[in-house]
Amino acid sequence: MAIEKRISLLEALERVCNVDVDAIDPKASTKMPFKPHNQTSNQVICCNTMLEPEYRDILLENVKKYGSQGWEEVFNRVSVQFCADNRKNITGRVLVQVSPSHVHDKQQVLDQCHAYDRAFRDHGITRDQYAIKIASTGPGLAAAKILNEEGIRTLGTSLFSLAQAIAASQAGCLFVSPYFNEVAAYEDDSLMHKGQDPALTHPMAPRLVHILETYAKMYQATGKDQPVIVIASNANVGEIIATAELGCQHITILAHHLEELQNTALDDTTLSRYPFLKNPPPKKQAPYYKDFKTSERLQGHMKIDPLVGPTWDGKFASTETNWLANDGEELSKAIEADPAVVKKLKDVFKAFGDADVKAKAAIEGEIARLNL
């Protein structure tokens, strides 16, 4: 019998779920032992990559072409060009993100998404090769419904609650990205989960199970495909493995975590640390929710919500509510009634908004230098 060569933790993960790359720098994708499925991005990733000295030519080229239309058009175009250049390095879709400054206004979301659509078209990237990330606000997902009907596929991002997830389904989103960790945790270590078994003890794990189980029930009731989960914001390798165990179909992974996964052999030491991989389930295939079932050891998550605490009444957001009517009025109310979501969204929008400010300053500096 042939002996299989020792594989890396990254290759083992790909056998369980679909690995996406959370980076637009092509070096992140091309270093991998296989092509990632999708490539995600956000304002922080796009701004930081744009300002790398090796990519200055891309910035200047787009400033010269589009600087007369303002800094945001330049930033849109730079982001799309990075994605277009990276398209050959993946098997699925490249994704860009709507600015946080627009996510509370449906028309502004539509305008930026149509600008992205024009830019992708100019690069020869068809609508089945890209998607646009839109924060899961009421107006944002109301816009996503229109875009999905137009054939511009979307991902509901900055998602922290079941109400947001159901609204994303009603909008026809292709993907959703729950954040496993809140953004503030990366600056404030006291907010970071410290447990050794994050699939069981992380405060976001129950909400993730609530979403997966609800999508499975919605699929069974309607036969309609539900958004594919692309879990984001894992703080470490242990959380990446945990979200695979929780049942996520895709995991988008930052470049430094991809490198760590690739450099870690799936040996006895690694298996003792991540026992889920000793006997993992088969990789999920579409339709993802047809036979979905939470593992027995994690089924207790359906009875708790640590983000609310012991006062949680056990009631789930309704799949019968029209969360998108009147520009997402009911979703906006649900978000405002959930302090955990309010705080997490505020922190997310600040992080991405700060990146927008940084990009604006850099681009406007080049516009002024070139007298455009």
Overview of this structure, please?
This protein is α/β, with parallel strands linked by helices and 372 residues long. It has a single domain, classed as Aldolase class I (TIM Barrel). Helices cover 47% and strands 9% of the residues. It is built from 15 helices and 7 strands. The chain has a 7-stranded parallel sheet. Helix 4 packs across helix 5, helix 5 packs across helix 6 and helix 7 runs parallel beside helix 8. The N and C termini lie far apart (68 Å). The relative contact order is 0.16. The mean pLDDT is 97. This is Transaldolase. GO terms for molecular function: transaldolase activity. Keywords: Schiff base.
User: Helical content, roughly?
Assistant: 40-55%
Identify the CATH class: Alpha Beta
Large-scale geometry: globular
Strand-pairing-aware structural class? alpha/beta
How much beta, percentage-wise? 5-15%
Order of strands, main sheet, comes to 1-7-6-5-4-3-2
The CATH superfamily is Aldolase class I
Q: What is the arithmetic mean of pLDDT?
A: 97
What string, H for helix and E for strand, traces the elements in order? HEHHHHEHEHEHEHHEHEHHHH
| Total strand segments | 7
Protein name: Transaldolase
Pfam families: TAL_FSA
GO molecular function: transaldolase activity
Keywords: Schiff base
Short description:
This protein has 372 residues and is an alpha/beta fold. It is built from 15 helices and seven strands.
